[in-house]
User: Fold this.
Amino acid sequence: MSRYIDQCPAPAKVRPVKVVVASPSRSGTLSMFIAMNMLGFKTYHFAECVLEKGLPHLRFFREAITAQYNRLSGVKRYNKADFEKWMAEYDCMVEIPSYMGKDLLGAYADDPDVKFILTERQPEKWARSVNNSAGGVVKMAESFPMNILKNFDPTLCEFMRINILIYDALARGTRPGDPDNEEELCTYYNDYIKMAKEVIPADRLHIITLENGVDWEDICPFLGLPIPDEPYPMPNDPANFKKMVDGFLKPRMRAAIIRLGAVALPTLGVAGWASFKYGPTLLALLKGMM
Assistant:
């Protein structure tokens, strides 16, 4: 099967990767993303993928996730050359490696110049954090009216598809509230952490416990860098996650509703459902469009 990444031109230059932050999402990765940029790295994280690179990178991501977790898809799994093509302009990866698993970690573990950081936390807290963030996005994606609106904006559609694919992989097909949901999430988390520690060379791996807090002193000595004068970025929380997602969704939903209206569907009814389902923030947005 022809892959999207194979149809894209080769980059003029590929930056050598210096640091791989192998921590799963909801393990302080957004703060780490900001921190690594502050230290001078060109850093790739899902936020960079969504908010800066947009549709082409979302397509890379969705294709890579599909190949990684759906063996029946017929899509060849990404290798190091594919990762380099996708993230050519970056020398640090945060969070993305956890989704790619052993294929990415093993590829860069063979490079003696790459250092690794892995943040751990209590699995039960991680599972609840996933459900309080990504779980909510998946519920939205699979419910009316988003299950209709997403089809009228390609970037919104890719974003929702990726979240569903990722959550399916993490939760083994369960959904928040299912009897075995948190157990499946914890199993995934424990399996991933165990695999990462086995694949990454111990002398190039720095492990941080999230419950003990994360600061410059945890990462700068390991990376051989001076400690900045600025404070370490504030940890992410569900409220910040929701604010970031809302900032991405608003213009995409506006565009989707306009396109939906253009094909003569009852836009007003969908807008009413959207305001009922997603609250006064979205209602205010829709009123501003009318």
Q: What stands out?
A: The longest helix spans residues 238-262. DSSP finds 16 helices and five strands in the chain. The domain at 4-236 is CATH 3.40.50.300 (Rossmann fold). The CA atoms of residues 116 and 205 lie 5 Å apart.
